[in-house]
Write a structure and sequence with these properties.
Blueprint lengths: L8 H5 L4 H18 L2 H9 L1 H17 L5 E5 L2 H18 L9 E5 L7 H4 L16 H10 L5 H11 L3 H9 L4 H12 L6 H9 L8 H7 L7 H5 L5 E2 L7 E2 L1 H14 L1 H22 L12 H17 L1 H18 L4 H15 L2 H16 L5 H10 L4 H17 L3 H14 L4 H13 L3 H14 L4 H13 L3 H14 L4 H13 L3 H14 L4 H13 L3 H14 L4 H13 L3 H14 L4 H13 L3 H14 L4 H16 L4
Parallel strand pairs: 1-2
Antiparallel strand pairs: 3-4
């Protein structure tokens, strides 16, 4: 009866045969009744620990003399520590009850570390042994020892258990009893908590991948006072009080399985509530963010992926098309985030036990991880295997075309844009993207024709207008470029790119102060705008601010290391300030990064000329013209050097 009041032991007391207990108690009475006087019996009743512990120590000593090792095991120590901690410390370290045998080992198994206030100064006698899930080899060893050897059954146990020892052991006894195994595991995790509302809330809070106080209120089926703080007292909550707390994966998995199989309707309703809560956060995070750059915004992306996860868990097949459509968007806007999207599909597939989701997620994640930050392979999977609308297919082709363009695969990029237009002739993004590729190939008139079509489809789309301004700039039509870039900026004042392009146009028109203002505003809007930093350095050099110019180039190098253009511009700063040797060295480093950088050859020629190395300067100009026969400035400089040489006596 007394055992029922003891934590942990109380849960087991009901299963003990009372007759066995009675016989044991009778034997104990016989032992002590035959030996003890009335006074000793009184001391035993008043302080049984003080009277019985020396007897235990003496018995351990007797056994220790007869065997190599004596090991005492105390399980579930997080529950019994309040009763046992002080007694064990006295038993082991103070000598209060006598000397223990040297071959005694005490093993405590619990979910928390030992209290450092009581055990901290005894570190040399205490060894922490962290216990994690079984490896596959360890799980197979246990299963084999229990006679479970059929490979299909073994694989299913491995999948369902996740290596959690209690699940492996339970399933080994009855491989088909997944539900019973999950219930057993969850019961172990929540042992000692009798409040049904808290237990239900603890289960429900396993549903979100991470949680804060607001999400706990959404997840819990009924309000529970102090629930958020109580959850953080549970030993399996990781990153407590961080705003992004989570359950340890070993604990969360069986809790999810128990809820999914126990009540599919409650499972769906709970995930719907959580998806709606994350949708509110996602929409709030979108405020002030360019819709074409949402996936690059970390708070928005995190909330959007959580919406996706919970929709997939609630209705895997119904939500899959939207999930694949989101993948096209993330590959187009922020390819480096594609792995987070693919991993979300994998996790939803595992947690919802959906083979379709698992297969899609694993294949997409492999495609993303195998090709680094490039999304081409993942987009290829979507194009060949997914049931996409024409609009979605065109969007996937445009996203892949941009990836190929960034990789310098211009013909492939041109082909993908063409296919996108064939699939969806009203895709303004396909026309705009193809115009950029055509411009890079020097096919300016064709690029302008594509921009005409893009503006017909979307007259107020700022991106098409800005690309027209950039095309005019590269064609040398600076006055027209300035007018168009003014319009692009008016259409979208938050876009940094038109400001950067306009700054360069103004610089070339000799309007350096206005150019500096444009670059300042562009970089304020987009602090990682490396292209604008390099061009602002050029303007600062023209305005006599070499220190500011070098600071801009240092920042650009930090953002995008190893670009030849950044090092070439550094050479320009040194050349403008008369530091010709340093300038020559910078141009050399730029050419080492890009041997076909004709501009660097031309600029190095001027630095060499300033050092009196005229023959080398001519050779640099020859090389520049060899690389770019249309490089008019280099041709003029070579003619000038030739005329000057002819005008000097002896040449």
């Amino acid at each position: 009866i007394a055992a029922g009041a003891i934590p942990v032991v109380g849960a087991l007391a009901g299963g003990i045969d009372p007759a066995v207990v009675a016989r044991g108690a009778g034997g104990l009475r016989a032992v002590f009744g035959g030996r003890a006087r009335q006074q000793e019996e009184a001391r035993l009743l008043a302080d049984p620990v003080r009277e019985l512990t020396p007897v235990l120590v003496a018995e351990l000593g007797r056994v220790g003399d007869a065997v190599p090792w004596v090991v005492l095991f105390l399980d579930t120590y997080e529950r019994t520590a309040p009763l046992l901690d002080r007694w064990l410390a006295d038993l082991l370290f103070s000598g209060r009850y006598g000397e223990l045998p040297a071959n005694l080992v005490l093993t405590l198994a619990g979910q928390r570390r030992l209290d450092p206030a009581r055990w901290g100064d005894r570190g040399r006698l205490v060894a922490d042994v962290p216990l994690g899930p079984f490896t596959e080899a360890e799980s197979r060893q246990l299963l084999h020892g229990r006679g479970v050897v059929a490979e299909p059954v073994v694989r299913e146990v491995l999948r369902l258990s996740g290596g959690l020892p209690v699940l492996v052991s339970t399933l080994a006894a009855n491989p088909g009893a997944a539900g019973e195994a999950n219930a057993t595991a969850v019961e172990r995790f929540l042992a000692g908590e009798s409040d049904p509302d808290r237990r239900a809330a603890a289960l429900a809070c396993a549903l979100p991948r991470r949680f804060d106080e607001d999400l706990v209120a959404v997840a819990a089926p009924t309000p529970v006072p102090g629930l958020y703080d109580w959850l953080h007292e549970l030993p399996f909550v990781v990153e407590p009080h961080s705003g992004r707390s989570r359950y340890h994966g070993v604990v969360r998995a069986p809790m999810l399985r128990l809820q999914r199989t126990g009540s599919p309707q409650r499972w769906t309703e709970a995930h719907d509530r959580l998806a709606d809560a994350f949708a509110v956060r996602r929409d709030a995070a979108a405020d002030g963010v360019d819709p074409d750059r949402l996936w690059a915004d970390e708070p928005w992306r995190r909330a959007a992926l959580d919406v996706l996860y919970h929709r997939l868990c609630a209705r895997p097949r119904t939500a899959l098309p939207d999930a694949l459509r989101a993948g096209i968007e993330v590959c187009g806007q922020q390819p480096s985030a594609a792995r987070h999207w693919a991993r979300t599909l994998v996790e939803a597939g595992e947690d919802a036990d959906s083979a379709v989701l698992r297969d899609w997620g694993r294949d997409l994640l492999a495609a993303v991880m195998d090709h680094g930050p490039r999304p081409t392979a993942a987009l290829g999977l979507l194009l060949t295997r997914a049931e996409l609308t024409d609009t979605d297919r065109a969007a996937a082709l445009v996203a892949r075309a941009w990836d190929r363009f960034r990789a310098g695969e211009l013909d492939a990029a041109l082909s993908d844009h063409g296919r996108a237009i064939a699939v969806d002739p009203r895709s303004e993004r396909a026309y705009q993207g193809r115009s950029v590729v055509l411009r890079s190939l020097g096919r300016y008139e064709e690029a302008l024709a594509d921009l005409d079509r893009a503006e017909e489809i979307a007259p107020a789309w700022a991106w098409a207008v800005r690309e027209r301004g950039e095309t005019y700039r590269r064609m040398g039509r600076l006055t027209e470029a300035l007018t168009v870039l003014d319009r692009a900026h008016a259409l979208d004042p938050a876009d940094a790119v038109p400001l950067g392009s306009r700054g360069l146009v103004r610089h070339r028109l000799g309007r350096h102060e206005e150019a500096l203002e444009d670059f300042d505003r562009a970089i304020a809007l987009w602090p990682e705008y490396a292209w604008a930093l390099v061009r602002r350095a050029r303007v600062r050099t023209a305005l006599g601010d070499p220190v500011g110019a070098l600071a801009d180039l240092d920042r650009a190098e930090e953002l995008t290391p190893g670009l030849a253009g950044t090092e070439g511009e550094r050479g320009e700063v040194y050349r403008a300030t008369g530091r010709y040797e340093e300038a020559v060295a910078c141009y050399g480093r730029a050419l080492a990064q890009d041997p076909e950088y004709a501009w660097a050859h031309g600029s190095r020629a001027l630095a060499l000329e300033a050092l009196g190395r005229v023959a080398e300067a001519r050779a640099e100009l020859d090389r520049a013209l060899e690389l770019d026969p249309g490089y008019g400035w280099a041709r003029a400089q070579r003619a000038r050097l030739g005329a000057e040489a002819r005008g000097r006596p002896g040449e």
